[in-house]
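Proteins fold. Shown next:

***
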Amino acid sequence: MITSRIRDAGDSALLLELEPVIAPAVNARIHGIAAALAGQQMAGVRDVVPTFRSVAVHFDPLTADVGAIREALASVAGQPVEDVAGDAVEVPVVYGGAEGPDLEAVAAFAGVSAAEVIERHSGAEYRVFMVGFLPGFAYMASVDSTIAMPRRPSPRLSVPAGSVGIAGTQTGVYPFASPGGWQLIGRTGSAMFDPQRTPPSLLAPGDRVRFVPVPSGFFAEPSFSSVRSSADAELKLGAAKARSVVTVLKPGLFTTVQDEGRWGYQRLGVPVSGAMDLRSHRLANALVGNEASAATLEVTLAGPELRPESDTLVAVAGADLGAVLDGASVPADAPAPCRAGSVLRFEGRRMGGRAYVSFAGGIDVPPILGSRSTHVRTRMGGVEGRALRAGDVLPLGVPPRRAAGGSMRSKTVPGGARLRVMSGPQDAFFPSDALQVLVGTRFVVANDSDRMGFRLTSDRRIARLEREMISDATFAGAVQVPASGQPILLMADRQTTGGYPQIAVVITADLPLAGQLVPGDWVEFELCSRAEALAALVAQ
């Protein structure tokens, strides 16, 4: 009999777990449970994400009934469920040579010829157990044990899009160019992920996949360019038709278009993204009368120079980066009239890390998978999926008819923050005192931190038990602990799955504070209950 348990994953998610094994029967049950729960369309549920042996349910703590979700999970898990009937998919692959630089190494590992490796890899049918790491990255098993070479000791800095790899008994295809440690044996020209396609991912959980050897030159270079060119053409057309636009004179250090995030696609490996400090993003929108979901500009540390080409209303919330409009200081957390041709500048950081600039009507770039948020690694959303550049022209939406409003004030962090956390879903991977070590330590945000996560350093290490963890769902604000014992705080652009255990999760009410942290800031953690987390969010 397959047993299950349900764990809290912060105040905005639950995790149902089955046996910690990679097995078709367990995985089939997981996908049946996920499909049954998603089919109930429960209020407040944002994402239902199946993995190898778990189902993560992400929800809005303010609108969802966590008790009802927990009961529904338990009910579905206790009933007979059918596996999701996946498709049979063939993926053409050019094996070896420049397309598969590790093929000979895998052959040497197996003690067979390269031709035999190709035959054994292409001769099997693989099940898609889950999709994660990158949009469209399907984890497939099981590779013939004789050619199941482990990952490389250190990952490559860049793996070409379309690369076919082996990692032990797993195989997969890199949808985008990215770092990666799998053994590369070939390459395909099939587009594994295309946000303009329905469905966007070529492979989905439960699919059955065969790799078909094809000769070199069978297909053109795999590329995301056709997708981007379509989105870019739509952006330029939108700017040409817009009643009002903003011209970027200088881009700032790292300025991107963000909204509330790309929910509903984590099961396909698509990061949520969105504003790092949602509180300030929503405040900036409220001040100019926009809906909370309208897109703003997230300004990091050093701000841009922006010129609206028609009269509009502007507001800046979040970090104090010294905003001035035609030389006059822009009042904090208040709307400011802006005449055509005026220039909004930022003179320098005073406090906090990220400011949010809203214009009446919102930044009206084309939505990708329901969101305008920029995710740079996969070049999705915003302006060509990247940070702003000088010369960019941003279309604005239709200004709202209602008056500007908003009564909140921005919250910034003067050099650090104390963040409240709930115990994480993988506490069994740590000694009994590990959580106390976490909450008793002051950490510093390292320089190599970014929108995916903050690397935290200290003179203490979080100990882990000697247990191998199967890749599982990740959560906003989760505190992951790699083998080094130095935690990583997962942020807006986090990958949807990961292989490091999560010892704690920052509560939703404190994520905006975390979003204002920058390298050099200190971080401390404090335990709290679900009831306290919800009360803090209601008060906010």
Q: What stands out?
A: The domain at 5-77 is CATH 3.30.1360.40 (Gyrase A; domain 2).
